[in-house]
Automatic annotation (TrEMBL):
<dbReference type="InterPro" id="IPR003719">
    <property type="entry name" value="Phenazine_PhzF-like"/>
</dbReference>
<dbReference type="Pfam" id="PF02567">
    <property type="entry name" value="PhzC-PhzF"/>
</dbReference>
<comment type="similarity">
    <text>Belongs to the PhzF family.</text>
</comment>
<protein>
    <submittedName>
        <fullName>PhzF family phenazine biosynthesis protein</fullName>
    </submittedName>
</protein>
<keyword id="KW-0413">Isomerase</keyword>
Length: 273
């Protein structure tokens, strides 16, 4: 059985966010415990598992995502990685529909090699900073927003780009501040730069101290910054050590996330599922 490692939201290897991708031949997933073992072995922030569905239904493939420690409800970069593998191996092309724990999601492959994810827009609700958040981050936020049940993060606005890039959080303390993670963000320092905002994503509560590029977080970043800038189409840079670029297009209750991906490892899973 093939297993691939794909760098997502980047057009060059060893950047962006790496994800494992396993395409199953059977029409059903094996037990979650087996999928979790593979994800723990791969030991990346997420591993995507997909299998084909019978024709004529509302979706073409079934898709699940696992961190090394748990299954998650929504993952952008591993969805992009899975779509990239399906497209580049000519298993599926054009627009593909996936049945997931977050409903039916769609990806579309473009002629220039980029892919667009069609995800639900996260609802934003202003909230007070929970106890311990400022101490865990080491900096006081300008504003804090809850991103709803589906994403489960706190969106934390900081004063400027430098504050985001220089964060050194206390991960153990940060783990108790949200259901899934904390997204720190600020507007780009220089309007002449080729991006509009920066972010970083911290998810110690699900076993990931810092995620290199978090697609699902951009379903909250898109409405937040589109409201600030008065534009529906924006470019975000997730300023991790690996860095990655996400183009966001706000379409009401849906957010389109566009990026590139590169396969860096193509191997064989010898332990059967």
């Amino acid at each position: 059985m093939k297993i691939r490692i794909v760098d997502a939201f980047t057009d060059r290897p060893f950047a962006g966010n790496p994800a494992g991708v396993v395409i199953l031949d059977s029409g059903a997933f094996p037990g979650a415990d087996r999928l979790q073992l593979v994800a723990a072995e791969v030991n990346l922030s997420e591993t995507a598992f997909v299998h084909p569905l019978p024709p004529g239904g509302e979706a073409d493939w079934a898709l699940r995502w696992f961190t090394p420690t748990t299954e998650v409800d929504l993952c952008g970069h591993a969805t992009l990685a899975a779509a990239h593998v399906l497209h580049t191996t000519e298993v599926a092309g054009g627009t593909v529909r996936y049945a997931t724990r977050s409903g039916v999601l769609r990806t579309t492959a473009h002629a220039d090699g980029t892919l667009t994810l069609d995800f639900p827009t996260a609802p934003l609700k202003p909230v007070s900073a929970p106890p311990g958040l400022t101490a865990a981050l080491g900096v006081a936020p300008l504003s804090v927003h809850d991103t709803g049940e589906q994403v489960g993060d706190l969106l934390v606005e900081l004063a400027d780009e430098r504050a985001v890039r220089t964060l050194r959080p206390d991960f153990a303390a940060l783990a108790s501040c949200s259901r899934r993670g904390v997204i720190a963000t600020a507007a780009a320092e220089d309007p002449a730069d080729a991006y509009d905002f920066v972010s970083r994503g911290f998810f110690p509560a699900v076993g990931i101290d810092e995620d290199p590029v978090t697609g699902s977080a951009h379903t909250a970043l898109a409405p937040f910054w589109s409201a600030r800038f008065g534009r529906d189409d924006l470019v975000g840079v997730q300023a991790s050590a690996r860095s990655g670029l996400v183009r966001t297009s706000l379409r009401g209750e849906r957010t389109l996330l566009t990026g590139s991906a590169v396969t860096v490892i193509d191997g064989e899973l010898l332990a059967g599922l």
